[in-house]
Design goal:
The chain has about 120 residues and is mainly α. It contains four helices and no strands. The radius of gyration is 15 Å and the shape is elongated.
Length: about 120
């Protein structure tokens, strides 16, 4: 697994796609949600790829793991916000299904990368 450049990481590329999809989705929200739920969803989506990039850029596996954890937290935050949009009937299941699917896939990828890095750290100790 090549982790020498964040742009080469499939998980980073998928998280960029997720961010794009979130921006497209939030256009469907009512205007009164622009500075509330939409803004929070944008921040969470941006945070996922940004923390993957920042963690890799720290050039330390331990730091990378820390930032992957932050990225995972932002992913969970975004999933929760999508569920909220359904629960308060701003969007429906069909509207958010692609994003929730991407969140699930990215979550697995983050976990796999974190496991890989953890094993690398163990081997070096």
């Amino acid at each position: 697994m090549n982790t020498s450049d964040y742009k080469s990481l499939e998980v980073w590329r998928k998280s960029i796609l997720l961010c794009k999809e979130v921006y497209l989705l939030t256009r469907k929200l009512p205007k009164e949600e622009t500075y509330v739920l939409s803004d929070q969803m944008h921040r969470a989506a941006i945070s996922i790829s940004s923390n993957i990039a920042e963690g890799q850029g720290r050039e330390s596996k331990k730091e990378f793991l820390k930032f992957l954890s932050i990225s995972r937290g932002s992913l969970c935050e975004l999933e929760t916000q999508c569920i909220i949009t359904i629960e308060i009937v701003l969007l429906n299941n069909e509207d958010v299904s692609e994003i929730l699917s991407l969140c699930s896939e990215i979550g697995k990828m983050i976990r796999a990368l974190a496991n890989y890095l953890s094993k690398q750290l163990e081997m070096n100790n």
